[in-house]
């Protein structure tokens, strides 16, 4: 969770000419972001502290379950990492082994995957009662884990509702700058993205949201987004590598309808097999945050595209046919134009500030650059 990145993205959109921007963030980041700008609407929709308390509670239950398995005399039964002596070492008798596995994924944990509970063993001389008691405690712990999982789903659902409630008022949504990598924040982001696709909202996916999509458990979501034509992904070099790795594991081979803006010395704007190159010269410094500026700038251009498409849909009732082909071309052109804006703004900011240039200086140049480009366009059209 960061405060700078969401501010950069949001402020850039405002400087492009967008009327209103709302930042949905953690309670912990809300105040600093609000203090950066009186213009931004900043909503605290979750608290990292509360999210951590869910993970802590889950970790506690899982540790208790592991301890319970060990108390059963485990070691060679079903999982590694147990240094308790085996039953054979302690009494040399035959063992009856029971393997226990938690019945559902833990609510957070490393990658949200199963934490295998080690196999337990019950010694003959402990008797059936001991085994029954152990099983009883395990069942109770499983119940606790289940109840916690249900509470978590309600908690996440509430956050998702809070954000998606605003969808009808939005023209575009940017997810990722400063998102952080908390597993529960990822769960929220996943559901928000799914709802955004259902609502056919313009989506700009950047930074940590791209990291999230490179994880195996979000593979289906990545596939959904790759075939969603109103999505623009803005990976840097590392993020593009991760995405490629994630996709190359099993490339479904389906049509890639979304746009990818691959940032670099030359930005490449890719739609399926079609690529546009932004060869505009930038600045000589690549300070942190310019990627966020680009994400915000693309969000502004995509919001205008959404408005244009809505107007055309309106026209369609008066027999004006909306051309699907031109829609993706316009989105491609808008992404390219946004990349040009950021390169030009970086160049001017660098000329003025040299080594001390920061993302804020780039943001300061956006307005003039957009105005100049608009004037150039007007002069070019006869
Ligand atoms: N002031 C802020 O609050 C900022 C927050 N940021 C946020 O920080 C989080 C993590 O972003 P990262 O970019 O560190 O995450 P990544 O995991 O993408 O990058 C990992 C590492 O790779 C390096 N890297 C990135 N592009 C590279 C390239 N072309 N060549 C060589 N190395 C490269 C990065 O410097 C970083 O050390 C995101 O949420 C992002 O939005 C950044 O946007 C920077 C500014
Ligand atoms: N090798 C490069 N040479 C020149 N410009 C570059 C290079 N790589 C990226 N850029 C430009 O820097 C800007 C930000 O891209 P970058 O790869 O730094 O994104 P990022 O890592 O996501 O940024 P952030 O610091 O906001 O996370 C883009 O405008 C891009 O065109």
UniProtKB/TrEMBL annotation:
One protein family per Pfam: Carb_kinase
Cofactor(s) required for function per UniProt: Mg(2+)
Catalytic activity, as annotated: (6S)-NADHX + ATP = ADP + phosphate + NADH + H(+); (6S)-NADPHX + ATP = ADP + phosphate + NADPH + H(+)
Polar residues bias spans: 84-93
YjeF C-terminal domain: residues covered: 1-373
Residues involved in (6S)-NADPHX binding: 178, 236-242, 292
Any one of the GO BP annotations: nicotinamide nucleotide metabolic process
Known role: Catalyzes the dehydration of the S-form of NAD(P)HX at the expense of ATP, which is converted to ADP. Together with NAD(P)HX epimerase, which catalyzes the epimerization of the S- and R-forms, the enzyme allows the repair of both epimers of NAD(P)HX, a damaged form of NAD(P)H that is a result of enzymatic or heat-dependent hydration.
Protein name: ATP-dependent (S)-NAD(P)H-hydrate dehydratase
Organism: Cyclostephanos tholiformis
């Amino acid at each position: 969770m960061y405060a700078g990145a969401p501010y950069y993205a949001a402020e850039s959109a405002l400087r492009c000419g967008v009327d209103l921007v709302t930042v949905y963030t953690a309670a912990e980041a809300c105040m600093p972001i609000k203090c950066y700008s009186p213009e931004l609407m900043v909503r605290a929709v979750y608290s990292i502290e509360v999210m951590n308390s869910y993970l802590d509670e889950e970790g506690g239950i899982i540790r208790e379950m592991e301890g319970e398995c060990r108390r059963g005399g485990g070691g060679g039964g079903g999982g590694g990492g147990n240094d308790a002596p085996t039953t054979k070492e302690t009494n040399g008798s035959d063992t009856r082994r029971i393997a226990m596995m938690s019945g559902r994924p833990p609510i957070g944990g490393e990658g949200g995957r199963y934490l295998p509970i080690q196999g337990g063993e019950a010694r003959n001389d402990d008797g059936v009662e001991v085994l029954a008691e152990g099983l009883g405690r395990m069942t109770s712990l499983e119940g606790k884990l289940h109840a916690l999982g249900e509470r978590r789903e309600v908690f996440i659902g509430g956050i998702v509702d809070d954000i998606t409630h605003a969808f009808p008022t939005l023209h575009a949504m940017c997810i990722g700058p400063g998102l952080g990598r908390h597993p529960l924040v990822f769960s929220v982001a996943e559901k928000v993205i799914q709802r955004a696709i259902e609502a056919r909202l313009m989506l700009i996916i950047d930074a940590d949201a791209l990291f999230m999509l490179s994880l195996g458990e979000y593979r289906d979501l990545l596939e959904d987004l790759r075939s969603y034509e109103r999505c623009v992904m803005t990976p840097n070099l590392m993020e593009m590598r991760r995405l490629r790795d994630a996709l190359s594991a099993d490339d479904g081979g389906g049509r890639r309808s979304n746009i990818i803006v691959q940032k670099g010395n030359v930005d490449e704007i890719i739609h399926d097999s079609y690529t546009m190159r932004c060869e505009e010269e930038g600045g000589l410094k690549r300070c942190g945050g310019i990627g966020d500026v680009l994400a915000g700038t693309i969000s502004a251009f995509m919001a205008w595209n959404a408005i244009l498409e809505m107007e055309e849909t309106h026209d369609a009732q008066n027999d004006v046919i909306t051309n699907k082909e031109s829609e993706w071309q316009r989105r491609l052109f808008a992404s390219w134009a946004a990349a040009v804006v950021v390169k030009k703004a970086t160049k001017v900011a660098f000329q003025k500030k040299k080594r001390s240039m920061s993302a804020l200086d780039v943001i300061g140049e956006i307005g003039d650059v957009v105005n100049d480009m608009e004037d150039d366009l007007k002069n070019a059209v006869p």
